[in-house]
Amino acid sequence: MDYLNAFWVGGLICLLGQILIDKTKMTPARILVTFVCVGVLLSLLGLYKPLADYAGAGATVPILGFGHALFQGVKKAVDAEGLFGALKGGLAAVSAGLAAAIFFGFLAGIIFKPKSR
Predict the structure, then answer these.
(1) How far is it, in rounded angstroms, from Cα 95 to Cα 21?
(2) How many angstroms separate the CA atoms of 97 and 91, rounded?
(3) How many CB atoms lie within 10 A of CB 88?
(4) Dihedral angle sign, alpha carbons of residues 87, 32, 102, 94
(5) How far is the C-alpha of 101 from the C-alpha of 22, rounded, in Å?
(6) Alpha helix locations (H) across 24-82?
């Protein structure tokens, strides 16, 4: 059942993104920023943690999960270090994911020949 919940929740998040691409004039960058902000807002309201517990990777892997992770990192750092924690907590929380994305993007660039448009 965990796989099914992850599949339909993650699919619904992707469907919402595709609807925004098809039906609005929002650029993909604005959609990504909107999804990150929605993830932060849902975390602030206490709604994202139950969703992540229910859907697992279906909720934590999409870009909404990135916003949730940023919020959790900032919240933890602010509780521990005060206002200065707000500046570094988010990056500390998502640093492993960012490093992996940069590394694998670089690796793909080496392996495959990029084409300019």
Answers:
(1) 28
(2) 10
(3) 13
(4) positive
(5) 27
(6) 28-44, 48-55, 57-60, 63-81
DSSP state for residue 114 in the 8-state scheme: -
| The pLDDT of residue 85 | 84
The 10s digit of each residue's pLDDT in 66-114 is: 899 999 999 999 999 888 888 888 888 888 888 998 999 999 989 998 7
What digits encode the pLDDT tens for the residues 11-66?
999 999 999 999 999 999 999 999 999 999 999 999 999 999 999 988 888 888 88
Distance of CA 54 to the CA centre of its chain: 17
Query: In the numeric block, which tokens belong to residue 50?
Result: 């139950």
Copy the structure tokens of residue 2: 């965990």
